[in-house]
Amino acid sequence: MPVRIGPWSLLLRPRLIVTSAGLLGLAAGILLLSLCLGDTTIPPEHVVRAFTPDAPRLDRMVVVEWRAPRAVAALVFGACLGVSGAIFQSLTDNPLGSPDVIGLNTGAFSGVLVVMLLGGAGAGAIAGGAVLGGLLTAGLVYALAYRGGLQGFRLIIVGIAVSAMLASANTWFSVKAALDVSMQAAVWGAGTLTGLRWGGLAAVGMGGALLLLTLPWLSRWMRALELGDDTAAVLGVRTEVAKAVLVVVGVVLTSMVTAVAGPIAFIALAAPQIARRLRRSGSFDPIGSGLVGMLLLGGADLIAQHAVPGGRLPVGAVTVCIGGGYLVWLLLREGRRA
């Protein structure tokens, strides 16, 4: 159903609207559950009241200061990872083309380890190290995979090789570092949202929001590039410039999450594929992928907090367990198609 608003025109599809509303509703439900559940269960009506000026001090402290930053972060970070996964799977035209498979998470981890080894312990230094590490890794993979153009399968193979080398370097850095740095890196490297506060979420939230505002242009470029470089050029897209911009946006989205929460695997891999099946779309949809990423990471964080009585798991451990099964299924499916 085409809709025109002044100089802008939109194509509204009922299925996309319904699935988006359903995903947002489920995300809201996960958010409410995250705020209610904990060592002390708080009823939903008290959760809502905790955000009002006359809320009891204890409810406000538990809900607004302790639980809300982690719950909101799970949704925001999941959206960033889902969009990043959609970008890279669209560029590579391959369901394995996600940031965690082609080494961008590992590169961001390497950047953080280098910063830690150099004595940087502040949030700004760690965030800068993660983003710089991710961008340098993306540049290396891009340069090694570029042969008169960017071919998706070559990018994945090169990315896997670079990721393996960086993982070995990360292990060496961790062994050679001081014990306190190694412990800090090990906890952070597992991928965790524990202890997150509004200050840590603010930078990623603002940066992610600015990048997500570019989704209309990114979606247009992605749809054009999926038709082939020649067709995209005919449609007025400067293909190599568009690919470079998409890579930078995808890397920054992933690296910002990695800087705060550590490398969280498989959300970027699974979210775009699930979104395509839910929406029955032939192209990669960054908006749908972001919504599915919200659900996946929000749900994984609920499991991480409450699956083990008396203890809490790193959310990265939960996503690896869930994503490992998904990756095996995906590899078997792609093997049959080949």
From TrEMBL:
Keywords: Cell membrane, Membrane, Transmembrane, Transmembrane helix, Transport
Protein name: Iron chelate uptake ABC transporter family permease subunit
Cell compartments where the protein resides: Cell membrane
Membrane-spanning ranges: 16-37, 71-89, 125-146, 152-175, 196-218, 244-271, 313-332
Pfam families documented for this protein: FecCD
Organism: Brachybacterium halotolerans
Membrane topology field: Multi-pass membrane protein
InterPro entries: ABC_BtuC-like, ABC_transptr_permease_BtuC
UniProt xrefs under PANTHER family: FERRIC ENTEROBACTIN TRANSPORT SYSTEM PERMEASE PROTEIN (PTHR30472), FERRIC ENTEROBACTIN TRANSPORT SYSTEM PERMEASE PROTEIN FEPG (PTHR30472:SF24)
Entry keyword Membrane: yes
Family, similarity comment: Belongs to the binding-protein-dependent transport system permease family. FecCD subfamily.
Signal peptide range: none
Predominant place of localization: membrane
